[in-house]
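batch_manifest entry 22 of 60
target: FAD-binding domain-containing protein
source organism: Oryza meyeriana var. granulata
requested by: lab member K.T.
priority: normal
notes from requester: please return tokens only, no post-processing; we will run our own comparison against the previous entry in this batch. if the run fails, retry once and flag.
--- input ---
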Amino acid sequence: MPSVAGAGGGRHFSVNRAVACWRHRRLRLLFLQRPLFSSLAGGRGGGGEDATPHLPVVVVGAGPVGLVLSFLLTKFGIKCAVLEKNIEFTRHPRAHFINNRTMEIFRKLDGLAGDIEKSQPPVDLWRKFVYCTSLSGSILGSVDHMKQEDFDKVISPISVAHFSQHKLVDLLLKKLEGIGFQTCLPDEIGSSTQDLVLENKILMGHECSSIQPTDNGILIGASFNKAGRMQERKIHCGLLLGTDGARSTVRELAGIHMKGQRDLQKLVSVHFLSKDLGKYLSRERPGMLFFIFNPDAIGVLVAHDLGHGEFVLQIPFYPPQQMFEDFSTKVCEEIIVKLVGWEPTDMRILDIKPWVMHAEVAEKYIGCNNRIILVGDAAHRFPPAGGFGMNTGVQDAHNLAWKLYILQNCVASPSILQTYESERRPVAIFNTELSVENFKAAMSIPATLGLDPTVANSVHQVINSSLGSVIPRNLQKMVLEGLFSIGRAQVSDYILNKKNPLGSSRLARLRSILDEGKSLQLQFPAEDLGFRYELGALDAEDCAERTYEAEKLKNSKRSREYIPSAKVGSRLPHMLMRAVSTSNEGVFSTLDLVSGDKPEFALLIAPLKESYELARAMLKIADELRLSAKICVIWPQGSVDAKVKGSRSELAPWTNYVDVEEIPRAPVNSWWDMCQITRKSVILVRPDEHIAWRTESDKVRDADSEVRRVFSKVLCPTRPIQ
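--- output ---
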């Protein structure tokens, strides 16, 4: 990814610097009077224990979301440590689909997206979902989830990826090591609190077992096993960020409840290896997901890596008649053979885990007087349909990190933390509903084949209510599995064939569902890239036309096509650009106009007199606030160098600007046309690449006052910026 720096490479320090410095010191002193700011410095103390190590931020949970957040915070100069309750990182693959928006974020994490693209399986091995009677039996249908625009990178500078979570964690750990992080076991950490240095460390085997609010932070009790004895380490922090997953201890200790649907389905997840099976599927029927229905067994196989023969089989089960303990290695091997259709001689089961599918969102994301913040699965639990879980979590982290940076640097007040909740929680609610909708679409396939999951659930409920207190569990299990066996006969070769009228009609209906895109979907570009913040760290007075609920209702009834939008709250639309008046002839995305190295605001303008006036005001006030800001002047394709040099005189004495030239793709003629706005528009983009403000430059009477008003709304200071 190219780096797009302003001409001259830095900020010009104006003749008004003395006034600017005085204003900044006044704001800084005002903000530092609030306890939250003083506690974001490192050192010792807190809770009356002077020897207790103090960190500005402690992240609990070292999954992908916690590691991404730790990377961003460290890169932005915020000292932190990570607590991970497990003694080692799990190798059980979990999430595996990375959507467009998350890959865009990963582009700016020191080339993480490029590492993923190099390491992931070839796209032709995972672009399809396959529906079959067994992995070697009849194919009932398939869906190709990749389109040509994905490869042409029309709507995003990078495509989606298929990359297992445990491999992503490995890459993130390498990135963290590159910026000074260490992974430490309990016996590798000193016991003396006087010499204990915890910043830039991932403390393995440390579970957050207690939290206690103090006058200036949170006192954490971290339990760990050292030499066979359970011990507790006290750590004080300004902010506690809970990224500890769906069964979050931080959420429970903070007393934050979840709202939504619980126990949608219980499943057993079987992680196994078989290169023989991987080679066979690569050659005969490659795919990412295999939905397998036959009279002997039903399951969904996730092909994490066909080349390496790594799979996870998902099997539904129904307690108390069927218990997790019933799924021994031998039983799981037998089920795999039934679903494959032959026995892979090199099959090796690595792990068997139970899990429960929920669709819930935390009632709030922030607790304990702005001291505890939930991020990722700790804040929301989705069905896996659509892969929204990890992706939404990474985007949570991206939204939060820059806000913590400006909070630490005394530019914003603590109320900016509330904008994290007001922006991200509605997205989680929407994604929860979309995941449930997609899960129901997935269930439409077995229902069409005569295996309606709602019937199975009803049978299970009847057995629980009528037989549960009358007959032993073993007999209940025999009844349940006998009824399920009768149900699975619906997908026998006798019924499911073109010569059988019932089977023929079911197969026709199945093909119709697949052809019409009404089955389980993989990509949701309208939602992945087109979601929009309505309330938060933005100024939407002139541009917010509908509430989030109204827009959500509209989206639910339209296609999944992404339509570029420059409305306030939207992600900045992608178009290729080229820097002008430089020796660099490479092309880059509009998203690259926003720095990935530091939290920076970018003002996008066309080369118009009124827009330049607003740009000068923006640079002046950003300088007063010690905010990093840059002007991006977008010129029409083919602009001559003599014209472009006009920016130098218009923006003097400032040098932190860049002139770029559009490279539009037919049928649009310019970036402004693609966004359905005029060249008079002026767009302020936040460090997370979302639009904070938009106006038309000829409608602004007093540029200086307008910019101060906008920053007062976006930065959430204690009082308006004067």
